[in-house]
Write a structure and sequence with these properties.
The chain is α/β, with parallel strands linked by helices. Helices cover 42% and strands 12% of the residues. Strands 2-1-3-8-7-4-5-6 form an 8-stranded parallel sheet, sandwiched between helices. Helix 1 crosses helix 10, helix 5 crosses helix 6 and helix 8 packs parallel to helix 9. The radius of gyration is 17 Å and the shape is globular. The structure holds zinc ion. Zinc ion binds next to loops.
């Protein structure tokens, strides 16, 4: 059984020269997972746009309307971190659509992956930190509405805290939000999740993996999830420009294996999203995401 992944040429959109968001990574990741035989081309799916009904499970109609029509204020645009464009709208809708399709596939196949998504800084009524829509929250809410799942766990190992996701699920005891992140990283005002672990600067593989090994079983026990959504951020890598941690490529690969292994042991499906990564060169970030896909592929085949 191949790993099914979602990716679109429309995940990319034009940005001004010198913008620090690594938009090139989406196309390169797609090319590499195909070129390296990790995913056969017929298992790479182009997502449809997220529907308005699904968006409104998480976001306010006012925010969705104003973002879609290009009516955000200058302050809102600055907080989001992107200049508005039609192409940005298309990307936001497609990327959320990709996560929705991936979570549905994960329920059927055990593991599936969106080669984007994990935009965890998006709140119901605003976007920030390069995150327009909270794809993970929308996807979980859509499955709950369709009675495909009752409970879910978000395992957020991006180096930044998923403040938007935590805000969405703050009063929902059916969704357990676990985040392990750099304490001194953005967002500077954290929103408490079900379980947050803050790491100091330059934390490396040994500390990180020991904490994760100790914590994951407790997360699964407490969450009793029907589905895990995993945010496999590349930004804990030692050469990330924003991350402040010091994980190696090998450490990140062991992290991914640990999450997938833990879920397989208890028979819980996992949908993977790539979340952040700001490597210099950006190929470092792409390498981390490619490795995540290859590990996910191993779990989907076994
Ligand atoms: Zn991040």
């Amino acid at each position: 059984m191949p790993l099914h992944v979602w990716s679109s040429a429309k995940y990319s959109f034009p940005l001004p020269n010198g913008h620090r968001f690594p938009i090139a990574k989406y196309a390169r990741l797609r090319e590499r997972v195909i070129a390296e035989g990790i995913v056969p081309t017929n298992a790479v799916h182009d997502p449809v746009r997220v529907s308005l009904d699904d968006l409104l499970l998480v976001h306010t109609a006012d925010y969705v309307d104003r973002f879609t029509s290009g009516a955000l204020t200058n302050d809102e645009e600055r907080r989001l971190g992107f200049p508005w464009s039609e192409a940005l709208v298309e990307r936001a809708y497609r990327a959320a659509g990709g996560t929705i399709e991936a979570v549905r596939a994960a329920l059927d196949e055990g593991v599936a992956m969106n080669l984007a998504g994990g935009t965890h800084h998006a709140f119901p009524s605003h976007g920030e930190g390069f995150c327009v829509f909270n794809d993970v929250a929308i996807a979980i809410r859509a499955l709950q509405r369709d009675r495909l799942i009752d409970r879910a766990a978000v395992i957020d190992l991006d180096v930044h805290q998923g403040n938007g996701t935590n805000a969405v699920f703050a009063d929902d005891d059916r969704v357990f939000t676990f985040s392990m992140h750099g304490g001194r990283n953005y967002p500077f005002r954290k929103v408490a999740g079900s379980l947050d672990i803050e790491l100091g600067d330059r934390a490396g593989d040994d500390l990180y993996l020991a904490l994760l090994a100790d914590t994951l079983p407790r997360v699964i026990d407490a969450a009793r999830p029907d589905l895990v959504v995993y945010l496999a951020g590349a930004d804990p890598h030692e050469h990330d420009r924003l991350g402040r941690l010091a994980l190696t490529f090998d450490g990140l690969a062991r992290r991914d294996s640990m999450v997938l292994e833990q879920c397989r042991e208890v028979g819980i499906p996992v949908a993977v999203t790539i979340a952040g990564g700001y490597g210099d060169p950006i190929d470092d970030t792409v390498q981390v995401h490619v490795t995540t896909a290859s590990i996910a592929a191993r779990y989907s085949r076994s």
